[in-house]
Amino acid sequence: MTAPRTFDGLPAAVGWTPMVRLRRSVEGAGCEAFAKLEFLNPMGSVKDRIARFMVERAFERGELRPGGTILESSSGNTAMGLAMMAIEHGLRCVMVVRRQTSQEKLDCLRAMGVELVLVDGDLPPEDPESYNQKARRLAEEHPDWWFPDQHNNRENSEAHYRTTGPEIWEQMEGRIDALVAGIGTGGTICGTGRYLKERDPSIRVIAVDPEGSVFFDWYHQHRLVEPRRYLIEGLGDEEIIGCPEFELIDDMLRVTDREAFLATRELARTEGILAGGSSGAALWGVRRVARTLRAQGIERPRIVTLFPDSGSRYLSTIFSDRWMADHGLL
Ligand SMILES: Cc1ncc(COP(=O)(O)O)c(C=O)c1O
């Protein structure tokens, strides 16, 4: 297959991101590791995929028309993808975003004409003004707005089942022992994981969840724990949501902010890959999974991961020595 020479509009350029073999960052790990550079999507993240897919579906069903309004809650990246789709189709874009989101992301969203509804990320999920409740409430108050609800809508996973999964399968020529990915809404890991397992049921699907999120205890013990604040953006949640299909996941690991951010910084210095905090979490997961698979007798496992967004969105946080020190992470 040859790459198209031109794209008819930005949304057409979503997907077919490069798959890069990791070298120095996995030296000594005894695995072959490959990362799909999702930050090379047009708006800079993996979330361009679901934005394009879900908006196109909504148009096909007649739920969206030019002049309509999109409403969503996002850690920033889905909002950027939806902003691209809103501009393409002449829509208004209202996004519920945590006030604590990195300044770079908030500035990008404003630059794209997004109307931000900022909420306090420290409010508990049951608070009507919290991140988890606010978009739901706005959707009820404005029934004419289109609310994709990425956290509970399995069309999110379907976008990855139809694009990310087949791309990985083709790029890896079907030779994969494990998929390791962070879990936020769960769309990436479940959609991609489902596709890969359908092609080869022996492929293991391993999720990485931040310490403080509720997924890890739910997955392992079906126990709902109190969420705690953490700093990794885009991963984990404060409540169990409807999008993830936990039964598709073979194991779930728990990463700390410190582990994820130190790996993120290392990735920049050793591979020249300037990626975000969830990419560091993924790299940390790849090394852990390499150890486990080798202990299970797979001599040199081939592990695939995704790097969801760019480090340029975290220059004032993860890549700032002062910010890292202020948070006790250096
Ligand atoms: C930076 C980043 N990494 C990872 C993810 C997780 O992807 P998913 O929501 O598909 O689980 C997200 C989702 O918002 C994200 O913004």
| Low-confidence segments | none
CATH fold naming of the largest domain: Rossmann fold
Multimerization status: single chain
Taking all Cα atoms into account, the compactness measure Rg is 19 Å
Shape: globular
User: Which class of secondary structure composition applies to the elements?
Assistant: alpha/beta
Catalogue the ligands: pyridoxal-5'-phosphate
* Reported CATH architecture of the largest domain: 3-Layer(aba) Sandwich
How are the strands of the biggest sheet laid out side by side?
Answer: 1-2-9-6-7-8
Helix fraction bin: 25-40%
Q: Number of helical runs?
A: 11
Q: Assign the CATH class of the largest domain.
A: Alpha Beta
Structure in words:
It is a single chain. With 330 residues, the chain is an alpha/beta fold. The chain has 2 domains: 10-42 and 162-326, 3-Layer(aba) Sandwich (Rossmann fold), CATH 3.40.50.1100; 48-141, Rossmann fold. Helices cover 37% and strands 15% of the residues. It has helices spanning 48-61, 77-89, 103-111, 131-141, 155-162, 164-171, 187-199, 215-221, 257-271, 277-295, 321-326; strands at residues 19-21, 32-37, 69-73, 92-98, 115-119, 178-182, 204-210, 251-255, 302-307. The strands form 2 sheets. It has a 6-stranded mixed beta sheet with strand order 1-2-9-6-7-8, with helices on both faces. Helix 2 (77-89) links the parallel strand 3 (69-73) and strand 4. The longest helix is centred in the C-terminal third of the chain and has 19 residues, at 277-295. The protein starts with 18 loop residues before the first strand and ends with a helix. Residues 47, 75, 77-78, 182-189, 233-235, 276, 278, 308-309 line the site of pyridoxal-5'-phosphate.
